[in-house]
Write a structure and sequence with these properties.
Number of helices: 4
Structural class: alpha+beta
Strand order of the largest sheet: 3-7-4
Helix content: 40-55%
Shape: globular
Radius of gyration: 19 Å
Length: 191
């Protein structure tokens, strides 16, 4: 989902549209020179609000433009969410705070130079580890629901759907795990 969102933003930039604002369901653009900007997305849900804000300021001090974006569609106020994959205070997400600000969209003027937010392989492995853990938690939740509905509640249709979703999410976990292994192996070569 994040990769397709990043590709879409870069496609818009190549067609001559620059991002100027994000909302829960919207992206606002203004005309620009085609291909003048490049976008990268960064998953920051594992960070506390304070750490995420410092990270955003870090990018802005480097001359990049940064927006926050929600990864889900929650419209309520005063929400609190536990994120078991988070670090320290990043495990608790509140609104206001880091809730509905799980992504950073980072814009750079396209100067022809590569634009990566993570350049060291160890950093890439750690970053993909957070995303793997999110999918792992979701897969576990749906596996548990498949047992509850399929066996305990004897609702095999819902149990089967939950099991299928758990398997699909487990495949995503394995894809991330493969990337993590590759980056960990590559980081050992760098040492």
């Amino acid at each position: 989902m994040m990769k397709s969102q990043e590709q879409w933003l870069n496609k818009m930039a190549k067609e001559g549209w620059r991002l100027i604002q994000t909302g829960k369901l919207s992206y606002d653009f203004e005309p620009c020179e085609p291909g003048a900007y490049v976008y990268r997305l960064e998953f920051v849900a594992q960070k506390s609000w304070n750490e995420s804000k410092k990270y955003q300021i870090f990018f802005e001090e480097m001359g990049y433009k940064v927006w926050t974006k929600n990864i889900n569609l929650n419209w309520s106020m005063g929400k609190i969410r536990w994120r078991p994959y988070g670090e320290g205070a990043g495990q608790i997400s509140t609104n206001p705070g880091s809730y509905n600000k799980e992504l950073l969209i980072v814009e750079k003027e396209d100067d022809g130079q590569p634009f990566e937010l993570h350049t060291a392989n160890a950093d890439k492995a750690k970053y993909y580890g957070y995303m793997r853990n999110v999918w792992l938690g979701e897969a576990g939740t749906f596996l548990l629901l498949s047992v509850v509905f399929g066996i305990l509640a004897k609702n095999t249709v819902v149990g089967s759907i939950c099991l299928i979703l758990a398997v699909v999410m487990a495949v995503v976990v394995l894809i991330f795990q493969k990337q993590i292994k590759k980056y960990n192996d590559d980081s050992k070569i760098e040492e």
